[in-house]
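Protein modeling request. Please complete all fields; requests missing the sequence field cannot be processed.
Requester role: graduate student
Desired output: 3D structure, token encoding
Chains: 1
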Amino acid sequence: MLDKNMKMKKYLYIILAGAVSAPSLAQNGIGAGVTAMQPIFAQAAVDAGIRNRNDLLQVRLRKNETRTSRIQVENSLHTICDMLAQVMGHAGEAIDVQPSLSAPENTQQYYLSPESALTQTNEYQLLDKQIEADKLQYKLSVGKNMPSVAVGAGYLYNNVMDKSQNNLIGMLTISVPISSWWGGSHEMKRQKIQIASSLNDKQDKSELLMVKMRKAWNDMNDAFKQVDIAKESIAQSEENLRLNTDYYQAGTATISDLLDAQTLYQQSRDKYVESITNYEVKKREYLQATGR
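Delivered output (292 residues):
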């Protein structure tokens, strides 16, 4: 059940990432106010003799690349939606997800020490159940080789020719399984060894579970830091795009420079969406590792 829920949450955030990316691609990957790269403005500039036809062709090629990317994103989005519906048990039904990804909050509120989280994980509880089962098996093996005592009693009353007789009969049977003592003692020893083995296995796997929790915590914090870095990259690439737009309009930069700046800007936005998606997945993995 946990694996199924984890798949559902991963698919959901992949869908959100695609749904957020698609609208930005619809804008031809151009930041607000960057009108010089629109084909209609490039055509006007060529007609006015301000720019050469090569600029127009480069803009149109970039527009076609963006349209192709948008089609690929939308197709992938539909596929992931179908996969999410199947995992949710609603195969063939339409899934509607609102494209909204918010910046992650501080990770400290999710922290739980491995020692306190250990007992609430399903894996740890299964280890406890295994030890309980081994102890019951040991008790059964002991019971099979213990002497058994059977007690019986009977009462008989006779009245013949006005002469009554009362008879009380008692029986006691003790059964000692001498023939099975040899094999039974080995069985009890084997069960004791099994209990000790289960206890050691519990200790070993408990330590591994705590290592897994610490790794999941570190992975979540790393993903959180990547989101901050991606936000800084957006600001830097946006400023770079603005400057190159001004330079191009002033005639001091080529269309290639402007297209490269636009590419960096779009890549930074895509990276931001990917980093948030990755953070949400890592957060779910940490919550799952700590039994939540």
